[in-house]
Amino acid sequence: CFCKLKGQIDDCSCSVDTVDHFNNAKVFPRLSSLLQKDYFRFYKVNLKKECPFWSDDSRCSMRTCHVKTCGEDDIPPGLKGEHDHRNENMALKYLESSQDSDNCDEDNDLDAELGYLNTTISDSAYKGFELWQAYDDAQDNFCTLPDEDGEAQYVDLLLNPERFTGYKGESAHRIWRTIYMENCFRPKKSFNSYISSSKLNGLCLEKRVFYRVISGLHTSINIHLSANYLFSGKNPLSKDADNENWGYNLEEFKNRFSPEFTDKEGPQWLRNLYFIYLLELRAVAKAAPYLAQERFYTGNESEDSETKDAIMDLLNVIKSFPEHFDESCMFADGTKQAQKLKEEFRQHFRNISRIMDCVGCEKCKLWGKLQTQGLGTALKILFSSKFDKLLKTSDQPFLSRSFRLERSEIVTLFNALGRLSTSIREIEMFRQMMRSRTL
Ligand code: FAD
Q1: Which residues are within 8 A (CB) of 359 and not within 5 positions of it... i.e. 6 or more apart?
Q2: Helix (H) or strand (E) holding 43
Q3: Atom of ligand 1 nearest to the CA of 356
Q4: For the chain, first and last CA: distance in Å?
Q5: Annotated active-site positions, please?
Q6: pLDDT confidence band for 197 (50 / 70 / 90)
Q7: pLDDT tens per residue across span 123-141
Q8: Per the record's keyword annotation, is Electron transport included, yes or no (predicted)?
Q9: Residue 23 in this model has a pLDDT that exceeds 80
Q10: What pairs with residue 8 in β-bridges?
Q11: Which residues lie below 8 Å from residue 4, measured CB to CB, with a gap of 6+?
């Protein structure tokens, strides 16, 4: 079977077999049950934001793309009063928007921003401090901040599962093309098709990592739609007796990933899924001391305590994994060049999170936004030097204002990892189906 991948995962010291075993036996069951908890299932998002890059293609009106948002009564009481520190000042929003640049090669003009900060400091020392703090925090972010404006609404993720929607054609291709082609990290001589694995060797580690995580995310999305496919009639591989039209579509999976239909790229795309999984797993392991102090508050004491226990159990399992992705070799030499590369990396990733507002199917946009925000949180944890410094000292500084993760960042981080973990498990299911067909 082409999906029985062998050997090391590229740019990692770990083998595919090790990840399969660890994920399917240990992480997947724990994470799946954790993500049923109220703290993790309610996600606040603005699906009506305008696309900043091109005028809207038709909003998809397919039934399968519909997202059911929560009524006031559906939301746990503890989340209704959710207080986001970022709402305290609008300056951050100003800073965020002024940092967003489509031109990846342009250096940031920080002077205007810092000038703005200085005036405010003379107005009020305290407010000035807050602004510097906000500015400082914004430097760590790898994606646009979660939507907290008036149009943001809670969505119950369990009622809106990621699955086949039928979103395809030019609108979907434009999003993928823009992500792959217009985000600068590609060999200088541009080529018309998507990047091929053989061209990756000419890129430095950081750029390869960037490509691999995007490709891994793309793989995961396409596995979910193949594993939760809508058939026009009853599906023989249905997972659920009440939903007989939904289920595994082995042909769809093969068409998307077998070497013969993908110019030999399919298995490499599958390997990229393992790569992004290891990267996000490492981020959770790194943030474990911080996460262990969270309350996971929803207002329901027994539920919150169960969530906390489930988190501790999962963190212990994840920490026991010996061969995580090693981020310490990225942007490592401390030179100006490395700093510039890191800034570019951050800007490209922020662009990708903004492209998600252009997705023409609400359901795909919901999960696209969630997964890019989760990946952005993982990158922030891995590459924020502030986080490294704090880890070297005692646990106590985590309680300070100097580093914090918002609830939305924690929710997206775990849900994004949950999507990848499920995809790896689905590959095993497809493998078994192929095996039983050849017997
Ligand atoms: P696409 O998946 O659109 O790929 C375009 C091209 O990219 C391919 O021809 C190939 O050359 C290359 N490519 C494919 N996979 C990879 C990879 N892993 N790495 C590198 N290159 C690759 N559809 C749903 O049914 N449900 C969803 O929830 C959903 N969510 C989506 C979320 C986003 C953000 C986007 C952009 C699309 C989403 N889609 C979803 C649509 C889906 O991803 C496909 O675009 C669609 O099914 C059309 O598939 P395709 O075969 O034309 O190739």
Answers
A1: 167, 171, 172, 175, 365, 368
A2: strand 42-45
A3: 34
A4: 12
A5: 361, 364
A6: low
A7: 444 454 455 555 555 666 7
A8: yes
A9: yes
A10: 15
A11: 431
- Could you give the CA distance from residue 309 to residue 306 in angstroms, rounded to a whole number? 5
pTM score of the predicted model? 0.85
Q: 358 CB less than 6 Å from ligand 1? A: no
Which ligand 1 atom is nearest residue 255's CA? 51
Which residue is it, tokens 């026991």? 320
Q: 372 pLDDT exceeds 90?
A: yes
Beta strands in 128-267 (DSSP E): 153-156, 229-230, 246-247
- By most ligand atoms within 8 Å of CB, the mutation choice from 364, 371, 426, 427 for ligand 1 is 364
336-354 pLDDT per residue, tens = 888 888 888 888 888 888 9
Reduced to 3 states (helix: H, G, I; strand: E, B; else coil), residue 138 is helix
Q: Which residues contact 12 (CB under 8 A, 6 or more apart)?
A: 274, 275, 278, 323, 325, 326
Nearest to 404 by CA among 88, 76, 114, 95: 88
